[in-house]
Design brief:
SH3 type barrels; Fis family transcriptional regulator
C-alpha cells in the first residue's frame, strides 16, 4: 500500500509539472501572437463601436469608428466625418478588446492621400487642425500631393470661388492632427 501511495504521489507531481509547463508554453505563445498585432488590426476590431481618441495636438474626439486605413482612421461624430492620421494619435479609448484582420491587397497600400483626394474631388468643405495650432483652419482641399495638401482658406459656409479664397495653406501630412468634413469617408 505504501508503494501505491508513493506512485500516486509521484504521478500527481508529474502531472502538475506537465500542466505548469503546458500553461507556461500557452502564455508564451499568446505573448508572441500579441507582439505581432498592429495598431491597425487593433483598431479594425473596433469598427462600428464608439471610441475616443486624443491626439498630439491636444484634441479629444469621440465617435463611432467607421473606417481604418493603413495610415488613418475615420470617426462619425454628430453627422461629420473626422479623419485622424495614425501618427497623430496619442491614445484610443475603446470598450472592446476585439482585434481585426491585417489589411491586405490594395487596402494595405493606400495611405492618407486617397482619403484626402476623395475630399478634394468632392470639393468638400473641411476643418483642418494641425499638430501645433490651437484652432482649426476652414476651407476646401485644392490639391493633394504625395505627402502634402493645399487648403484654400474660405469663410465657413461659403462656396469655394476664387474671390472667396483668402489664402492657400500648404500642409505636410505629418502636420495634420485631425480633419473634419460633412462628407462621409467611404
Amino acid at each position: 500500500m505504501r508503494w501505491d501511495a508513493l506512485f500516486a504521489d509521484l504521478e500527481s507531481q508529474l502531472h502538475a509539472v506537465a500542466s505548469a509547463q503546458q500553461e507556461s508554453e500557452i502564455r508564451e505563445r499568446t505573448r508572441g501572437e500579441q507582439a505581432r498585432l498592429t495598431l491597425v488590426q487593433r483598431l479594425s476590431g473596433q469598427v462600428g463601436r464608439q471610441v475616443g481618441v486624443s491626439t498630439r495636438g491636444g484634441r479629444s474626439v469621440t465617435g463611432v469608428l467607421t473606417n481604418v486605413g493603413a495610415q488613418w482612421l475615420a470617426l462619425a461624430v454628430e453627422g461629420r466625418s473626422v479623419v485622424v492620421p495614425l501618427p497623430a494619435l496619442r491614445t484610443v479609448r475603446a470598450s472592446g478588446r476585439a482585434v481585426g484582420q491585417p489589411l491586405s491587397g490594395i487596402e494595405a497600400k493606400l495611405g492618407l492621400g486617397p482619403v484626402l483626394r476623395a475630399l478634394s474631388r468632392d470639393r468638400a468643405q473641411v476643418a483642418l487642425w494641425v499638430t501645433s495650432a490651437d484652432s482649426g483652419c476652414f476651407g476646401v482641399i485644392d490639391r493633394v500631393g504625395s505627402d502634402f495638401l493645399e487648403l484654400a482658406l474660405i469663410p465657413r459656409g461659403d462656396e469655394r470661388r476664387a474671390a472667396e479664397v483668402r489664402e492657400v495653406l500648404t500642409v505636410p501630412f505629418s502636420s495634420i492632427d485631425t480633419l473634419e468634413s460633412e462628407s462621409s469617408i467611404e
